[in-house]
Amino acid sequence: MRVLFDQGTPVAIAGFLPEHTIRTTRQEGWATLSNGDLLRAAEDAGFDVLVTTDNSIAYQQNLKERKIAIVVLTQNRWRIVHRMIRKIVAAVMRRRREATQSLKYRSGKRSAKAFPRVLPFASP
User: Fold this and answer.
1) For residues 84 and 67, what is the distance between their CA atoms, to the nearest angstrom?
2) 48-57, pLDDT tens digit by residue?
3) Domain annotation for the chain: domains and CATH numbers
4) DSSP letter (8 states) at residue 98
């Protein structure tokens, strides 16, 4: 499976996805593309999953016609990401197209909406 990491996605996650081909938007030369152009370029290049920290992507883009699965990380601090790594890997591997998944991360007294969220879109 081909996985694209957007800007802000901790690249250390790649070490937990050894059976996948991982590329970053910077490696692809897409660091300056807007969300719509980025999604189009990623789909055209054959990527299966986009992992991003852009929580507004679902509100900025019409995802119904998209072929690429999108996993949204609501945090990018490695300390938190590392604690949730199994769920992130499961979301990438599942790449569900029919449902949004929200997970909670609880830290001390505060509870924050965490990640990953797999955004819904139409099946190819």
Assistant:
1) 26
2) 999 988 888 7
3) 2-119 (3.40.50)
4) S
